[in-house]
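can u do me a favor
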């Protein structure tokens, strides 16, 4: 049990700010969805934490509050316009700042499911780089995007980030008039974060959550070997060897504490398990922990990096398939080979957030998943005859394959190594696998799809779309 005092709810919410919200890393087309977007400021006094005792590998850490500093940050809210549509669940994302700006990878992955389910989404500018810059690369941080709108924001540094995240969550249960959710009153708060944000959530769960008791469940998405330091992460900057820096994040393996206060679902791609060292942790399932590792998935793929920005539910299957095509260029940056084009992480993430919400509400836990089959050195995977990883969560994209899909082996500038690879099969291989041609492929795809749905790793509500996507691919 931690020894911190409970944070007072001293944060004040102001807004909504005049629309539109300036575009940066949070682009989303909500037209026709029945959702609205509002932006608020959150300000108050936050405290940092310091470790008491040893930072043990089992995650059972004790901390105490340290310095106090004022802060003023922003909160972005996407919610149903019709309060009657609200599910009662608010998904709160620790915005990702590795690109030098606020990014929302979990909104991108989950938006279709959140909107379909009537959930609210709240993105919190928790880290300094999203406001003032200073990420791994020089991105469009808030003060650069709109100095007049954001010039008065104040962030005292990432050692205060955990308490800022606590106070943002508490603001969502405040009375109407001071609550950024307007008339909505959530009965369930789910915290989510991907990549660097996932590392901070590991630390938050291990050191902070058991005392502050704000969130009802956590989706930790794409974590590396260790949690973030309480003083913030030291990451490589542009102009240095980013690959060496990313590999350095393998660090000292640190588990999420088995006695976590609330349910935690850890969702991992092949990149996270092998390249970032998540597979070195040895995390076991427990009464409060589930670990899902997805075969054939990369840390980022064509869905996250391209299709998601346009996938608001109005795309045809043919349109979505076109956006998912393998590409060797991401945001104008060439990669050494086509990046991972499998959409399975998007669809498995949909299942993960549904399971987490049910579990956090007192329902059944998610199914336990097989682990990916790592090589002895933990840096690669045992593969099948088609080059796809063995083990892990199986989807039709690896069990009815038309390509080798991997989270490893990509080359190129900046973050390319995180994007995985697609190696399309030759016509000869496709003919050998599916002698009946397209009909044989679709039959096998359907069989493997129904198997994954039955196992609980894909949603029945996504079935028709996945079949249409396979037919259009």
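np, heres the sequence
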């Amino acid at each position: 049990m931690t020894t911190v005092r409970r944070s007072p709810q001293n944060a004040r919410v102001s807004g909504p700010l005049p629309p539109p919200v300036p575009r940066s890393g949070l682009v989303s087309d909500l037209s026709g969805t029945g959702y609205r977007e509002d932006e608020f400021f959150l300000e108050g006094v936050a405290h940092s934490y310091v470790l008491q005792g040893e930072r043990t590998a089992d995650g059972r850490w004790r901390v105490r509050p340290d310095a106090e500093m004022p802060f003023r940050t922003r909160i972005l809210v996407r919610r149903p316009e019709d309060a009657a549509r609200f599910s009662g669940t608010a998904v709160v994302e620790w915005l990702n700042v590795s690109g030098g700006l606020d990014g929302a990878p979990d909104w991108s992955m989950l938006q279709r499911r959140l909107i379909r389910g009537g959930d609210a989404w709240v993105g919190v500018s928790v880290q300094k780089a999203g406001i003032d810059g200073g990420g791994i690369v020089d991105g469009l941080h808030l003060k650069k995007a709109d100095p007049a709108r954001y010039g008065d924001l104040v962030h005292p540094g990432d050692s205060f980030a955990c308490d800022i995240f606590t106070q943002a969550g508490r603001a969502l249960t405040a009375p109407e008039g001071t609550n950024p959710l307007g008339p909505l009153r959530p009965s369930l708060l789910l915290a989510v974060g991907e990549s660097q944000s996932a590392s901070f959530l590991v630390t938050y769960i291990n050191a902070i959550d058991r005392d502050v008791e704000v969130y009802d469940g956590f989706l930790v998405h794409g974590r590396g070997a260790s949690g973030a330091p309480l003083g913030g992460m030291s990451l490589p900057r542009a102009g240095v060897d980013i690959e060496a820096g990313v590999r350095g994040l393998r660090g000292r393996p640190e588990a999420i504490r088995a006695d976590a206060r609330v349910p935690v679902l850890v969702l991992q791609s092949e990149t996270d398990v092998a390249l970032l060292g998540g597979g070195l942790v040895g995390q076991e399932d427990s009464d409060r922990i589930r670990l899902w590792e997805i075969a054939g998935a990369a840390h980022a793929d064509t869905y996250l990096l391209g299709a998601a920005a346009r996938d608001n539910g109005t795309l045809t299957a043919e349109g979505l398939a076109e956006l998912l095509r393998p590409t060797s260029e991401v945001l104008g940056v060439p990669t050494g080979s086509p990046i991972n084009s499998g959409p399975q992480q998007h669809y498995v993430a949909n299942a993960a957030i549904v399971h987490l919400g049910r579990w956090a509400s007192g329902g059944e836990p998610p199914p336990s998943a097989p682990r990916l089959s790592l090589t002895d050195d933990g840096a690669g995977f045992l593969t099948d005859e088609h080059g796809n990883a063995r083990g892990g969560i199986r989807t039709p994209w690896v069990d009815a394959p038309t390509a080798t899909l991997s989270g490893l082996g990509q080359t190129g500038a900046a973050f390319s190594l995180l994007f995985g690879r697609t190696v399309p099969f030759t016509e000869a291989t496709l003919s050998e696998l599916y002698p009946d041609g397209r009909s044989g492929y679709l039959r096998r795809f359907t069989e493997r799809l129904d198997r994954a749905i039955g196992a609980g790793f894909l949603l029945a509500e996504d079935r028709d779309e996945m079949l249409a996507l396979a037919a259009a691919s």
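The first helix runs from residue 105 to 117. hope that helps!!
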